[in-house]
Amino acid sequence: MKDIVFCSNNCFVLYSAAVQAKNSESKESVPSLPQSPMKERPPKAFHQYSNNISTLDVHCLPQLQEKVSPPSSPPIMFPPAFEAAKVEAKPDELKVTVKLKPRLKAIHSSLDDCRPPSKKWKGMKWKKWSIQIVIPKGSFKPPGEEEIDEFLKKLGTTLKPDPVPKDYRKCCFCHEEGDGLTDGPARLLNLDLDLWVHLNCALWSTEVYETQAGALINVELALRRGLQMKCMFCHKMGATSGCHRLRCTNIYHFTCAIKAQCMFFKDKTMLCPMHKPKGTHEQELSYFAVFRRVYVQRDEVRQIASIVQRGERDHTFRVGSLIFHAVGQLLPQQMQAFHSSKALFPVGYEASRLYWSMRYANRRCRYLCSIEEKDGLPLFVIKVVEQGHEDLVLSDTTPK
Known about the structure:
By secondary structure, the chain is α+β, with helices and mostly antiparallel strands. It contains six helices and 19 strands. It has helices spanning 17-25, 145-155, 199-203, 219-226, 254-259, 300-310; strands spanning 3-8, 11-16, 45-47, 56-58, 188-192, 195-198, 209-210, 215-217, 241-242, 251-252, 263-264, 270-271, 295-296, 317-319, 322-326, 350-356, 364-374, 377-385, 392-396. The N and C termini lie far apart (130 Å). Mean pLDDT is 76; it is low at 1-39 and 81-90. One of its GO terms (cellular component) is MLL3/4 complex.
């Protein structure tokens, strides 16, 4: 029994001769192969393969007639590389097994190739916009601020706030009114009853030093000395910032020292224009803003006592939203009825407080509280002062 070996694409297909013999007996089942045009049969060729198959006789298969190739067709999509494609033929024809080699994947040379391609602009990227201003012919006068204010008032679209009252508080060192610039005298600090001092005016005084908590010590001592010292720039009393050069008697207000171009240093020293170094210095201080918490150390009990002792002097004492106006007084015959175990009710006491309105939920008004005498007993009166309404007076014999 001999086998026929057909080699196609490194694949071997073996057909048994016995099978062919059986197929030849059944004429109806398998038709005969077409005879080749060659008259003489080629001699037998013996090939030996180095594998586990025994030595076989290989016969050349008859050559088929060449057929005209059909027109080109679209590319065929092959299955994945790891699966072998099987081409099934009709039972009458020769069976051929085709095995495809896996295709190598393309390796990107860099990470930039993995990124999606950038969008390409079509047309213009930028467009120019031209503005044309048309000025009317003739004399045209733009409206002023007063005309605009009147027009807005007629429309009723805006509300102009009330003008801020002028600050008449005066610094007892430099004698300037109101809060100063942040990079200058800075804000006013309360020293005593109706006594105010600028933060930097007190801080740059020779005797004053600052604690770790932010309290300024010896401000009153510097004030007493400044009342006897005259400024070299403005020739007024109250100068407390002196030159740090030994045996130099030049002394200035803090604001006058800035105007006279004195040099300030980071270690809280100052040199007058006569003794300051030429040019710039590493330790020179050119910015005087103070944003930390700073206050003047004082005795609050003594300050409250001075309020009572000064009597009818014009002053303001405020605690939060409570503004104190007058203490009042008690006569000896009123002592029994005008006090309780926790409080005194002096006749003539007057204070005001800013609190929420009784009429509107989102508005504040002023409540004026006072104590009067009626039939030998205290009478507590509250006067409600609210803009746009008449004053409402509430009174009772108890503070509640």
